[in-house]
Design a protein that fits this description.
Pathway: Cofactor biosynthesis; pyrroloquinoline quinone biosynthesis. This is Pyrroloquinoline quinone biosynthesis peptide chaperone PqqD. Pfam families: PqqD. InterPro entries: PQQD (IPR008792), PqqD_bac (IPR022479), PqqD_sf (IPR041881). The protein starts with a strand and ends with a strand. The strands form three sheets. A three-stranded antiparallel β-sheet has the order 3-8-4, with helices on one face. The longest helix is centred in the C-terminal third of the chain and has 13 residues. By secondary structure, the chain is of the alpha+beta class.
Length: 109
């Protein structure tokens, strides 16, 4: 395990463009990306060096749970408890796109 600059232990982190997500993967925002709220737009936003991405409610809900502690399966389960229906494949597809853009990193479970 390597230690991050904040002193937390972490196993190998990877960005696997195009690869499927495992239910045991633990997604987290990349170090250069931040989830925030735009008071001007009254919407959650994803900030990264190249641009600002305005998120819809479900995208923000997914990313709020991408803390490196929750697994993909736990994120789907938590969202299922909050909302009536959460398509597992749509959550995985959303996270796969963000991994491909290097905005989300996966830590082995």
């Amino acid at each position: 395990m390597d230690t991050t600059p904040t002193g937390t232990d972490r196993t190998s982190t990877r960005t696997r463009p195009g690869a499927g997500l495992s239910g045991s993967d633990r997604p987290r925002l990349a170090r250069h990306v931040r989830l925030d709220f735009s008071r001007t737009r009254q919407r959650p936003i994803l900030l990264h060096p190249e641009a600002v991405v305005v998120l819809n409610g479900s995208g923000a809900a997914i990313l709020e749970l991408c803390d490196g502690r929750h697994t993909v399966a736990e994120i789907v389960s938590e969202l299922g408890a909050r909302y009536q229906t959460v398509p597992d494949d749509e959550v995985r597809e959303f996270l796969t796109r963000l991994v491909a853009r290097h905005w989300v990193e996966l830590t082995d479970g």
